[in-house]
Structures are given as C-alpha cells and as structure tokens.
Amino acid sequence: MLKVWNVVVLFFALHLTYFVSFSQTDFDNFLKHELYSTSRSIVNGTPWTNSLLYRGHPFCGSNNWKTGDVIFNGERYPDLEINYNIVEDELILFDNKKGLVKLNKRLIEEFTYIDESESTTKSFIHKELVLGDGKEFFEKVYSGTVTFYIKHKKWIKKNIGAGYMGTLYSNNKLYIVDAAGVHLFRKKGGLLDILGSSKELNKYIRKENLKINKKHPEDIVTLLMHFENLSQAN
Question: What does the DSSP 8-state code read for residue 172?
Fold first, then answer.
C-alpha cells in the first residue's frame, strides 16, 4: 500500500512540475512578444483602437496623422507617425507592422509634430505643471520671461442618437508660469492680472485687435512677445 501511495505522489509531483514549468515558459514567451515586451523600446506598447462611440475625434488639432519626433526614455526618435489623444492624454504611434500602439507615457519626455493640414508645429512636454495633478502632456507654446502652456482636453457631452453616445468638445486650459508660480487664466483680464495690467498692454491689444482667449493662442503669443520687449526696455 505504501508503494502504491508513493507512486501516486510521484505521478502528481511530476505533472505539477510540468504544469508550473509550462506556465512559466508560456509567460516568458508572452513577455518576449515584441508588442507586449517589458523592453523600453519605443515601439512597444499596448494596441489602441478608436472606440467611435462619440461624434468627433479624440485628437489634438486635425484628425490626420502627423509626422513628429519623440524623446522616449532619453532617446530621440525622429520621423514617426503619431497622434495625441487628448481625451485620454495618450500618445498614439502608427507602426507599419503593429498598427496603432499606445506608447508608455511614463517614458515619454517630449514630443513635437507638424500638422500639415493646419500648417502648425506643436511641441509638448510631459511634466507635473500643477502640483498634485501628476504628470500630463502640455503644449509649450511660448518661452521667455514667462512660459505659456496649453493643456489640450476634450470633454464628452452625452446626447445619445444617430449611432453615437455623445459628442466631443474642446475644453483647453491656459497657463502662465513665471517666477511667482503657475497661473491659470481664461481671458484678457486674467492674463493682464498675471502680467501686471498696464495701459500700454491694453493699448497694444486694441491697436493689434488681439483676441485673448482659448481660440486664439497665437494672439496671446503676440502679446507676450510685446510684454517681453517692454520688460527689456525697462
């Protein structure tokens, strides 16, 4: 009886060892798969698909794919086909072999792309601009005595119909960073309060017909450049 019991125990021990060994091998092979690798190569990430649940698109600027450069894990990767998903704050890479890949955001430091359909070049930095919010992507629009950032974002207005669950709308936030800290503003009054409201700046805004709001960041840059010139003159 003892011998029979020993045989049974040996049988299950051998099969258990095989099962554990097989499982570990399977797991190792899974990790070695290029797309899901633990490697820090830029082309590794998770697959991404556009859910198409909402009217509109989730990208910054146009819906077209942009050619850009990415600084990833300390290394620069040029001439990539990318798109910035501002709904999820994720950078999407189009790779000929793997399709659409959501890059590991933790390893992205900066990226720049050209949106040919809008004739614009945008540069983004991955940082914690607002204390407590964690690291996010911010467009670095202007840098001088002060720095102008835009946090691009889209929100969902739920209005079920025509095959959609809702509509995507832009909801960008504007920030100025100076020696005193980080400042959020929306319109002319808020920006002038940050810069130090003056007759000269108001006069310049009227003269150049500048629109200081979310829809006209180029006018904000024009005002900041004038502000720099005034500061240097004084």
Answer: -
Structural tokens at position 58: 């989730």
For the stretch 65-104, pLDDT in tens is 999 999 999 999 999 999 999 999 999 999 888 889 999 9
Strand residues in the chain grouped as ranges (E): 45-47, 54-55, 66-72, 75-85, 90-95, 99-103, 108-115, 120-127, 136-143, 147-151, 154-157, 166-170, 173-178, 181-185
- For residue 133, the 8-state DSSP code is S
Q: Does residue 106 sit in helix, strand or coil?
A: helix
- End-to-end distance of the chain based on CA atoms, in angstroms? 102
CA distance 221 to 83: 24
Structure tokens at 127: 């940082």
pTM: 0.78
Residue owning tokens 């633990």: 38
> With contact defined as beta carbons under 8 Å apart, do 164 and 55 qualify?
yes
**181-192 burial code (b ≥16 CB/10 A, e <16):** eebebeebeebb
Instruction: Say which residue the tokens 């004084």 belong to.
Output: 234
